[in-house]
Specification:
The chain has helices at residues 6-12, 56-75, 124-140, and strands at 19-22, 26-30, 40-44, 82-86, 102-107. The protein is an alpha+beta fold. The two termini are 22 Å apart. Helix content is 31%, strand content 18%. Bound molecules: guanosine-5'-monophosphate. The site of guanosine-5'-monophosphate has 13 residues, from strand 2.
Length: 142
């Protein structure tokens, strides 16, 4: 897959972005179509199209920076009451830009953003069955 997206241009400074944080590995900037005011994206500087191809140290750093930004959002003029961290990995998860990015979404009462209602609790046997399948897949990872 071609790793080039508009985010590569933003990292290189060839496309405009309202930057809020940068270090050697990570860049954070305002989302151009914010879910709520102050919505940020945190991206690795080295493009990876999806989580499977993202260096795990950099993945950890995305979360670390997201955690720091959540605190900054609360203390900024955005003045939110809460924050959602969200990452879409793959088309079926809603990913549109194939350069991994962590959404940092400020929340205030009545902002209208959110996941659909709470599903029912499945039988424990169903949870145990899938847990075993996922443990097996984990053991097969390198
Ligand atoms: P996804 O659906 O892939 O998780 O989210 C992609 C996000 O990137 C969207 O929230 C969209 O608004 C944002 N986005 C797409 N193109 C640009 C751009 O050129 N600049 C900025 N700042 N955000 C972008």
């Amino acid at each position: 897959m071609n790793p080039y997206t508009i985010f590569s241009d933003i990292v290189a400074g060839r496309a405009p972005a309202s930057r809020v944080y940068e270090d050697d590995d990570v860049l954070a900037f305002m989302d151009i179509r914010p879910m709520t005011p102050g919505h940020l994206l945190v991206i690795p500087k080295v493009a990876a199209p999806d989580l499977a191809r993202l260096d795990s140290e950099i993945g950890a750093k995305l979360f670390k920076v997201g955690q720091m930004l959540a605190r900054a959002l609360r203390e900024s003029e955005v003045g939110c009451d809460g924050v959602n961290l969200f990452l879409a990995d793959g088309v079926m998860a809603g990913q549109e830009v194939f350069h991994v990015h962590l959404h940092v979404i400020p929340r205030t009462a009545g902002d209208g953003f959110g996941l659909r209602g709470r599903p029912r609790t499945p039988p424990r046997a169903d949870l145990d069955y899938l847990a075993a399948s996922i443990r097996g897949a984990l053991e097969r990872l390198e």
